[in-house]
Amino acid sequence: MTVMQGYFIYNTFMLKQKQAQASVRVELIKMEDKININALRSELIRHMDQLTKTDQREKINDAVLLKTAEISKRIKDYISHNPVLSEYNTAYCVTVKYAKLTSSASAPPLIIKGKTWFGNGKELENPQIIHDMTSHVDGETSAFVKEFTTQSNFSINDWQRKIFGQMLGLLLFSVFVFCLLIFLFYFSIRSLIKQKKIADIQTDFINNITHEFNTPLATLGVAIRTIQEQAGPDENIAVDHAVHIAHRQHRRLKKLIDQVIIHASGPEDIVLKKEKTEMPAFLSQIVTDFQTVYPSIPLDITVGERKAELYIDPFHLTTAINNMLDNAVKYGARQINISDKVMENKYILTIEDNGIGIAGKDQEKIFDKFYRIEKGDIHNTKGLGLGLYYTKEIISAHEGEITVSSLSSKGSIFTIYLPLS
């Protein structure tokens, strides 16, 4: 980027220089037309011819200075009053580049080279030619002046400072852009380092928390197995049922901890272990576990006429559905209905609640990672905003999709579409 900026500034600088030279050249050509430089040349040639004719060749060099002061004054006034020429501090000079004079006598020809004729008195720092005017003088015009060449030159003195002044805005903008890029690069690197630190902290946290969980889970597992082994045939049915649920939830919690370790990098790395599953029995088990945890929340299930069998990962899909049920309870649901049906080649599962609902602006974001609805006192609801994100990832891993339909204060309807084959 810096190289490109430098190249752009350099090209702009060279273009400005060429534009300045072209503008000055045009104005000086206008000036030469105004002072009628051709007439001045003709007058000088005639005077030099007359001096040669009268054997006064020694005065030829003085003849070049004919009316020099008068012409130079006109040149100075013109340049000083011309906005373009004065702005660029223009130096201008006309020289007799080459003149050859012969006489009737046997004397060698007189040669004049590089004799200053007139100008505005400023030194030419980097001369640029306006024109070379060469005349091969015929006998009718002059008998003795055979060749006569004048050259007009100009230079823009201190042109670098003038052009840099014109480019000041561009230079300041380029410096600003360069500093901005450095600033953004610095903060990008800083953010990357910060993110790496956060990722390292997250990894350490997951490793530590799973280690801390594994110890009490192992102890709990031993305790449950001990109760199961010591339970007699006359054991209370309710106690036996409670132990059975505790054992199942212990296994589930153990699997969840294992999944945290396996999928610490993100749900996109999920590997499904699919097995043929009868959906009515699968849903019935979810309802039983839910009512054990939330006995005061009615959960009704309506199974379609066609009993579906799907190849799914029971563990992951159970987690996904439980996430939606838990969310419904967190956000005020007092009644939840689950229904399923088979339509064409899709299995459709609907979960409907009568909670506070979801505003339209939030419905597109609720499946985003870490997104939580902040409204009223809802920000006090526990959670990290990962439940529905994880649910969507699970459904997508099953090559399905999930949609939501909701109105504020009217409840929500989540619909899951899964392929039958």
UniProtKB/TrEMBL annotation:
CDD domains referenced in this protein's UniProt entry, alphabetically: HATPase, HisKA
SMART domains: HATPase_c (SM00387), HisKA (SM00388)
Stretches assigned to the Histidine kinase domain: 208-421
Domain of life: Bacteria
Keywords of this entry: Kinase, Membrane, Phosphoprotein, Transferase, Transmembrane, Transmembrane helix, Two-component regulatory system
Catalytic activity of the protein: ATP + protein L-histidine = ADP + protein N-phospho-L-histidine
Protein's recorded name: histidine kinase
